[in-house]
Design goal:
- The chain is mainly beta and 217 residues long.
- It is 6% helix and 54% strand.
- The chain has 2 helices and 12 strands; from the N terminus they run E-E-E-E-E-E-H-E-E-E-H-E-E-E.
- The protein has helices at 122-127, 170-176; strands at 2-4, 11-13, 27-38, 44-63, 72-95, 98-116, 142-145, 160-162, 165-167, 183-187, 192-202, 205-215.
- It has a 6-stranded antiparallel sheet with strand order 3-4-5-6-11-12, with no helix packed on it. A two-stranded antiparallel sheet has the order 1-2. Strands 7-10 form a two-stranded antiparallel ribbon.
- The two termini are 38 Å apart.
Length: 217
């Protein structure tokens, strides 16, 4: 990319990433299992689906010694797994002059980073605000925070933690907190979601009522 040198004030070019001759397609393995069911006269019917996903050779960065001229290189250096299920339930509650059909949808999905070569900094994870900063063992999208030790009773300032001790040195907390001392808040994307859908029919009139939800994030 191009920029202005702070020393010479002239434009200069800098490589943001070197060519990688080993670059290849990402790989995803997905297994789906499904069961359909129905009661007599289809009073209750639906399906249950399970999925298992494994991603390998995903694009990510790998650390390199600085004497190579770079500190990291983008390539097929990442991996993740995921699993979940979908439940679809349908029922004809009323079948007379007034008809009432109901559909319930329940979905669950989780993911986890299984391999990423570059260890993130603590302030990267906190400042990301749920964006994708890979951290092994956690969801791809996740929230993190600094540990909380309440408020200072003398001035009301928030008290953080540094090396296991209470601290109000915010600049040092944000730059020197070890990764293991961060508080993992949870996934930034819903792990459960779905809805409840009702349809009422009377002669030529139809009324639809729905409730949607997102949980677990």
């Amino acid at each position: 990319y191009y920029s202005n040198s702070p020393y010479t004030k002239f434009n200069y070019a800098q490589n943001s990433n070197l060519g990688n001759p080993d670059l290849r397609w990402e790989k995803n393995q997905i297994t789906n299992l499904a069961v359909d069911f129905a009661a007599r006269n289809n009073i209750i019917y639906g399906s249950v689906d399970f999925f298992f996903k494994k991603g390998t050779d995903l694009l990510g960065f790998k650390s390199f010694p600085e004497n190579t001229g770079i500190t990291s290189l983008e390539g097929n250096y990442s991996g993740m797994t995921g699993h979940g299920f979908d439940i679809n339930l349908n029922s004809h509650i009323l079948t007379g002059i007034v008809k009432w059909n109901i559909t319930a949808l329940i979905s669950h999905a989780t993911d986890k980073v299984t391999h990423y070569d570059v260890t993130p900094l603590s302030n990267q994870l906190v400042s990301a605000g749920g964006s994708t900063v890979p951290n092994v063992g956690r969801p791809v999208y996740a929230y993190y925070g600094y540990k909380w030790n309440g408020l200072d009773p003398t001035n009301g300032n928030p008290i953080g933690s540094l090396n296991g001790n209470p601290s109000q040195n915010y600049a040092l907390i944000t730059t020197a907190t070890p990764l293991g001392e961060l508080s993992y808040i949870g996934p930034a994307r819903p792990t459960y979601f779905g809805g409840l859908y009702n349809s009422f029919f009377y002669k030529g009139f139809t009324l639809a009522v729905s409730i949607n939800y997102k949980l677990g994030y």
